[in-house]
Amino acid sequence: MARQGRALVFLLAGALLAATAHARRQDDGYFEAIDHPAIGYGARMPTDPVARLSARLSDGSVTLGYDADTGYLPALLEALDIPVASQLAVYSKTSLQQAIISPQNPRAIYFNDSVMVAWPRGGFIEIASHDPHQGVQFYVLPQQQFGPPILMRRTDCLVCHHSYDTLGVPGVLARSVITGPHGEAMPFLGNYLVDDRTPLDERWAGWFVTGSSGTGRHLGNQIQPATRDLNADVTARATSAGAFPDALRGYLSPRSDIVAHLVFNHQIRVINLITRAGFDVRLAGAEQRDVAATAARAARDLVDALLFVDEASLPPGFAGDAGFAAAFAAHGPSDGKGRSLRTLDLHTRLMRYPCSFLIYSDAFDALPPPALDAVYRRMWAILSGTDKDARYARLTPADRQAVIEILRETKKGLPGYFGPSS
Fold it and tell me: Could you tell me the sign of the dihedral formed by the alpha carbons of 52, 58, 60, 64, in that order?
C-alpha cells in the first residue's frame, strides 16, 4: 500500500507540473506556430519513420514478432534500424511511466538519427520520431501479444516536449536530475538540461553510464539518500555494468554506453534547431514577413550546433563500447580517403571531423529552400575562414579543410561554391 501511495504522489506531482507547464505554454504566442496552417502539426498526417512503419503494419507488408520477455521491442528496433548497442538507461522518475521507473527498473532508450524508442520493464513502448516538416511525433506501442501491434500517436506528450526546453517546437530533451533511492527526483541537489554544451560534471544524474570518463567526473550511477546534504560532493564511480548487475537484467544489453550518451546529447539540440529553422521560415513565408532575414537568424544557431562550436571539451581517457562505435560508424558515408562525419574522436571532443552527421538527415534536407541556402552560406563563411569571429578559432584550418572535402564527396545538394568533388 505504501508503494502504491508513493506512485500516486509521483503521478499527481507530475500531472501538476505538466498542467502548469501547459498553462504557461498556452498563454504564450510563441508556441502557437504548431497549429498554424503552414505547420499543421495536428491537422496533417505525419511522414516520419514511425508513421511509415505504421502504414506498413496496417497493410500487412510488415509484421512484428513478439518476444516473451521484451515484447515487440527487438522486432521494432530492427524494423526502424535502431542498434541495440545504442541502449541508454535512465532511472529517474522524469518521464511518462514514472510510476514503474526506479534504479531497480530503469527506462531503456534506444536511438538512431531520427527515432528514439523507450521501454521500462513491465510498461509499454514509447517512441519519438522526427518528422521532416512537423517536428518530433510521439507514439506508444502497448506490450500485448493478442491482436496486431498498433502504433498509437500521442499528442499529450507535448505537455513536456513542446516547451522552452525544446526551443518552442515539438522536440526532444534530456535532463540530469539528482535521484533518490526509489527513483524520486531531487532537483534541489542538482537539475540540469543536457546537450553537448553541458559540462561533463553536470551530466547524467539519474542515468546509468557504462564505460570510462577518464579523468573527468559525471553525475551518473549515483543514488542519493533522501537526507543527502545539499552541499555534498556528488561524483561518478562506477564505469561498468558490474557495479549494478541487477538493474539492466532483462533488457537487450547490459550497457548504457558513455559514448552513446555523448552522441544522444549532441543530436537532441540539433534535431530541435532543425525543426525550429523549418518552422520559422515556413511561418515567415506564410505571413509574408522577411524570409531571408528569418532564415539568416535561424541559420546562426543551427550552423554553430552543426559545427560543434560550443561543444564542452572532453577530459582525457574517454572510452566506450566497441559495439556502439561500430554500429554508429556503419550508418554514414565516407569519402575517398575513408573519412566520415561519423568517425569518433574522444580525445578532447566527440567527433574527429567537427560537422554533425545530422547534415545527412531527411529533416535537414527537407528544410525550406531559403533556410537551406542560409545554412549553407553560413557554413561556408565559417569553413572558408571568411567569418573571422574569435568563437570559431577552435575550428583549425585542418578541421575546416577536412569537413569541406568530406562534404564535397558525400553530401548531395551541396552548393557549388563549396568547390567540385574530387
Answer: positive
Cα torsion 153, 271, 135, 45 to 10°: value is -60
Q: Which residues have CB under 8 Å from 262's CB, separation 6+?
A: 196, 314, 350
Instruction: Give backbone dihedrals phi and psi of 277, rounded to 5 degrees, phi first.
Output: -60, -45
Q: In terms of residues, how long is the chain?
A: 422
Tell me how far CA of residue 211 lies from CA of 35, 119, 323, 327, in angstroms. 43, 22, 12, 16
> In this structure, what C-alpha cell is assigned to residue 278?
523549418
- Which residue, among 123, 118, 54, 126, has the nearest Cα to 252 in the 3D structure? 118
Q: Is 55 helix (H, G, I), strand (E, B) or coil?
A: helix
Can you tell me which residue has the cell 564527396? 409
Per-block mean pLDDT, blocks of 10 residues, the chain (422 long):
36 38 43 84 91 94 94 97 97 91 95 97 96 95 88 88 91 93 89 96 93 89 60 42 70 94 97 96 94 96 98 92 94 94 95 98 97 98 95 95 97 91 55
Q: Give dist(CA 231, CA 32) in Å, integer.
A: 41
Contact 148, 57 (CB under 8 A): yes
Long-range CB pairs of 150-158 (<8 Å, 24+ gap) are: 150/57, 151/50, 151/53, 151/54, 151/57, 151/127, 153/46, 153/51, 155/42, 157/96, 157/128, 158/34
Taking each helix axis from N to C end, the angle separating 258-286 and 291-306, rounded to the nearest 10 degrees, works out to: 180
The continuous run of DSSP H or E covering 120 comes out as strand 115-120
Amino acid making up residue 390? A
Residue 220's alpha-carbon distances to 102, 202, 234, 309, in angstroms, are 14, 9, 9, 25
Euclidean distance between CA atoms 103 and 93, whole angstroms: 10
| CA distances (Å), origin 204, targets 50, 193, 221, 345, 384 | 27, 10, 8, 21, 36
Q: How far apart are CA 191 and CA 189, in angstroms?
A: 7
| Of 208, 212, 217, residue with least CA distance to 183 | 208
DSSP for residue 94: -
pTM of the predicted structure, to 2 decimals: 0.89
**Which grid coordinates are listed for 328?**
554508429
- Which residue's entry shows cell 542498434? 83
